[in-house]
Design a protein that fits this description.
With 432 residues, the chain is of the alpha+beta class. 28% of the residues lie in helices and 20% in strands.
């Protein structure tokens, strides 16, 4: 009995899948092309727990070689467990979820392998394998031999559409020469001309838009999953705007194009919410953690207004390099102790924020890598004075959302600084 090669586990494909972060989304087009090499999504799966179960089911199918039959059974169990409603029939939805994720992982893994032996096998050949419902464009590419570095593979590396089974094979110089001589050629083929066409995506989702895609490629598949995985790139927040370099500033941040300049309405608070100005850093942190049933030795899991679980711990108040210690940064930073007065307001900014945003940022400590940040923003008014609360969490693919920092800005123009935090994708906005 023949075995589908995408059912066979190999370390490069497993690593590609394992290294993805898990992103809740309302639709598959919420993120775009190369971003799918860095993030795992199931269209419409918007809770962390549901997405985690789908991710693990696919990981088990890939790592243990159980294939689609195992995943289909797990899919039904997961849907029943979470009471999830989705578009399409159960068989179709489980198949499309499985095929797309597993095939892209296989393709990315094969790319990693072929790059490693490029000096020995410098040519790549396209193979069209679909028999029942062949795509004419894909069939026309069957047998094309190009140098491995040809830019055509940047947009035409399988999978090239929903259900596409095409593959790429590496060839030695001798094998390539024999193949093109058999076709009457004296060298590699000329890359087919790429004709771009505009198509509408996300018609029924949260972010409908017009995108450009090569003729013969389904929207969202015009990228090389393995190359996107290996090379540092910019998995910007979402959608078509994300792949437009003009929307990225010099700091590597996504520049919003929507109008979020209107000020958030301030929540009036009584002065008794403030800590005494003489409070110690440790005492203020203990008060903050107690709000979430946590303490200096034990973190707690809090479900925010968007339904996402975040970890609340003392790490919010500790410098990145000292996260395992009790060296609260405000105790050591000159001029910052005044912020301790507002720690209770920061707890409220997480529990009942005005807005929640997530945004990709360049990793300062590791060149070429990016991290996903989640920000909680809230404006307060106390005795006629406006204060702005900012809390930030970073995504860790092993431990989920971990606290990075929380503070009330005390610079010359805190309103302007606060406004600059409203970047990326707005995932929650208070309506009352």
């Amino acid at each position: 009995m023949a075995v589908n090669p995408t059912q066979l586990p190999f370390k490069e494909a497993i690593a590609f899948y394992r290294d993805k972060i898990k992103l809740p989304t309302s639709g598959w087009t919420d993120i775009w092309e190369e971003q799918h090499s860095k993030a795992f999504v199931v269209a419409g799966a918007q809770s962390d727990a549901l997405l985690e179960d789908f991710y693990n089911a696919l990981q088990d199918a890939k790592q243990n070689g159980g294939g689609y039959a195992d995943f289909k059974e797990r899919f039904g169990q997961i849907v029943d467990k979470h009471g999830w409603s989705y578009n399409g029939t159960p068989g179709w939805r489980s198949r499309i979820t499985y095929d797309t994720n597993i095939t892209q992982a296989y393709s990315a893994g094969r790319y990693v392998q072929m790059r490693e032996v490029k000096h020995l096998r410098p040519y790549w050949q396209y193979e069209h394998t679909s028999i029942e419902h062949p795509r004419l464009e894909h069939k026309s590419w069957d047998g094309i031999i190009l140098p491995a570095d040809d830019a055509w593979f940047d947009t035409h590396m399988p999978q090239n559409g929903w259900g596409c089974k095409c593959r790429i094979h590496s060839l030695s110089s001798y094998e390539a020469e024999q193949a093109w001589m058999a076709k009457g050629n004296t060298g590699p083929d000329e890359a087919p001309k790429i004709i771009w066409e505009d198509k509408i995506v996300g018609k029924n989702g949260s972010n409908p838009r017009v995108v450009s895609t090569p003729e013969g490629i389904d929207p969202g598949f015009a990228y090389n999953p393995g190359k996107a995985y290996l090379e540092p790139h910019s998995p910007y927040p979402y959608g078509y705007e994300a792949i437009n370099p003009k929307n990225i500033n010099k700091s590597g941040h996504y520049v919003r194009t929507a109008n979020f300049d209107e000020p958030l309405p301030a929540t009036p608070m009584q002065p008794h919410w403030l800590n005494d100005k003489s409070i110690s850093g440790e005492a203020a942190v203990i008060n903050f953690l107690d709000f979430f049933n946590a303490d200096l030795n034990n973190a707690s899991v809090f479900t925010d207004k968007a339904g996402v679980n975040i970890s609340i711990s003392k790490a919010l108040f500790i410098e990145g390099k000292d996260k395992a210690s009790d060296q609260f940064k405000w105790l050591e930073a000159e001029g910052k102790a005044a912020r301790l007065e507002y720690l209770n307001l920061l707890a409220l900014s997480i529990a009942d924020p005005d807005e929640i945003w997530w945004q990709w940022e360049k990793e300062r400590s590791e060149k070429g890598r990016w991290r996903l940040q989640r920000r909680y923003l809230k404006t307060f008014e106390i005795s006629g004075d406006t204060k702005y609360a900012i809390s930030s969490f970073s995504w860790n693919h092993k431990t989920g959302w971990q606290g990075a920092t929380t503070f009330v800005p005390d610079n010359k123009d805190p309103a302007e600084y606060f406004a600059k935090q409203r970047l990326g994708r707005l995932v929650y906005k208070r309506t009352k």
